[in-house]
Amino acid sequence: MKKIDGHLHLVRSVAGLNGKGRMTPLGNGQTIWDDGTLIKLIPDGWGDDDFLAESALQVMDENGIDKAVLLQGSLNGYQNYYSYQTVKKYPDKFIAAFSVDPFADNAMKIVQRHVEDLGFRAIKFEISQGGGLHGYHQPFRLDTTPALGKIFHFLADYPGFVVTVDYGDYTQFSYEPEAIANLAQRYPKLDFVVCHLSFPNADHLDRLENALQQWQPYTNISTEISAIQDIEGETEFPFPRCQKDVALAKKVLGAKRIFWGTDSPWSSTFNSYHDLSTWLEATDIFDQSELEDVMYNNAERIYFKPDHIQAMQDSEDPVFKNNN
């Protein structure tokens, strides 16, 4: 069965920033936040202070993964340009989203450069209070904040552009499932992806169902199921709590609006990449055709649009062009 990891991070250089401060690499995959929090960011054997494209390709090859979607986040620090270089070098293996702090003075210049010059056709907003923008900004709304509105108005000129959002769990100011529904209605030609299945809790499925029901009318909203093992605190394959979460998502949204991913490298420090890439096959949630959609076809349809691939391949960075 063909597989696309719909949520993968490369780490050219550790540059994490969130409410815990800055992240510093310590070697052997270990890192420390400014507040003293230690985390194992990179699994053993994947890299000491980085997780490069070549290491990712080796992991993918060992586990039968055909392609991957490269996303950015505050945990590792934005790796926008390295992701661009990787897609240009390995166009048959990767597609990428970029990230930007919408409150930066040059936010719109950054957005325009990545879309118009570098050919990106996906953007990732990690707005969670626990790990993203809400950890170091005052509370804001995706659907009503002027700085975000400027970006969405710009992206509306690119039909099929993918907007990927990680908004954290319900305890955080950043938890905004209703904002995704509002944006999907407002921008029907954009595709919206919610990371981590809206941070589920198998003991509180009504909360998850409430979010999913808000999205159900809008076919331009999908969700990926990366890192739900971490969120549920599960290390027992094949993750029975996660099975309940995904079964509910299928019931409400259908199999064509769900896709698989891992959120590696960090998630692969809790469960092996092999287990993360095979657990759905050990369940009866999806039939064979549905499983093929979840593991490959849906991410292919959303992220690997032919014109989006072509946009990145045709791009030429004017910064390098004018200085070489």
Automatic annotation (TrEMBL):
The Amidohydrolase-related domain, residue ranges: 4-304
Keywords: Hydrolase, Lyase
InterPro entries, per the entry: ACMSD, Amidohydro-rel, Metal_Hydrolase
Superkingdom per UniProt: Bacteria
One Pfam family hit: Amidohydro_2
UniProt key word Nucleus: no
GO terms of molecular function: carboxy-lyase activity; hydrolase activity
Keyword presence, Lyase: yes
PANTHER family reported in the protein's UniProt record: 2-AMINO-3-CARBOXYLMUCONATE-6-SEMIALDEHYDE DECARBOXYLASE, CATALYTIC_ HYDROLASE
The protein, known as: Amidohydrolase family superfamily
Biological source species: Bombilactobacillus mellis
